[in-house]
Amino acid sequence: MGLYRRGKIYWFTTMQNGKRIQVSTKTDSKRLAEAIYAKAKTEVIEGRWFDNVKAKSKTFGEMMEVYFTKINVKDSTLSRKKSALPHLAEFFTGWTLDKITPDAVDDYKQKRLSEDAAHSTILNEVRLLSHAFNIVKWCKGNPVSEAKRIKLKSRKVERWLSSDEEPLLLRATESKLYGQLKDIVIFALNTGLSQEEILNLQWSHVDFSRKTLTTTRSKTLKSRTIPINNTTLELLKKLARVKAISGYVFYNTAGNRIDAGKLKGAFIKAVKEAGIQDFRFHDLRHTFATRLIQNGVDIYTVSKLLGHKEISTTANHYAHHYTESLRMGINVLDNCYNFATLEENASQQIAVSP
Q: Superfamily for 165-330?
């Protein structure tokens, strides 16, 4: 290794894989160049310098570009990952990877929290950053793994759509998202399917004669077939009059699968226009389950309709609604007794009492 000057800038040479390479200190100050040179020599001796070469020269944008060419995931997963990128890019664009430290990741989290971003949203964004570091491997370590963790806070109130709110929401969804948002909301309220299941639904999954549809969730990778009510059946019959070549039940102007980010944006806008507070698309699924339980449908049936792996998952979410539906079961006992006989027997017992 040796320090020298080229023009106004100081450079030094070192050996990498048996080859001599030249490295710019990017400064015309001899004192600063000597400090950089001394640090580089120390890192070479400790075996850390070559690990950091790419981290110092590659940027966040370059890493993400390579990352998205390397991963091989489903379209829905790719869409979800890309929807988590904009806020990261806004913060980290132009940064070299060595500058993305655990403290910088913490600063990013705090910034997003100050913007009132949902904890789940922040976690998804940070997971994307972490996965990019692991896949591209331009740095020896992963700064995300060393950053402080934020805990996902549960919502204070389990939210579902009231009978007064539903017409307001449906009115606000008209003509949005290629004219399909209202149909998607009605479909979600009557099937309990998740956003992913709805967007992935194709006509080959629908059986009109049996009044069923088959769906698969990425969380479990297991298919399930569920019955559909008449409201859903009539809606599907209407939609079947014009089908996209792609086969998707709900599709964009190009006839392809609707982007999850666009659905989310259109739904948020409709909720705001309807004047409804603290309501997410996923709460349509909560509404489906809550209405079933409040009308006496047992937990086991609701669990199967939602596709929960364990009944305990359903019970934990909806147990507070279950008391009134249990009342319907206990009231059945009233029909098992002849109250006139009970009263007569009670009178006789009183008469013979000492």
A: Intergrase catalytic core (1.10.443.10)
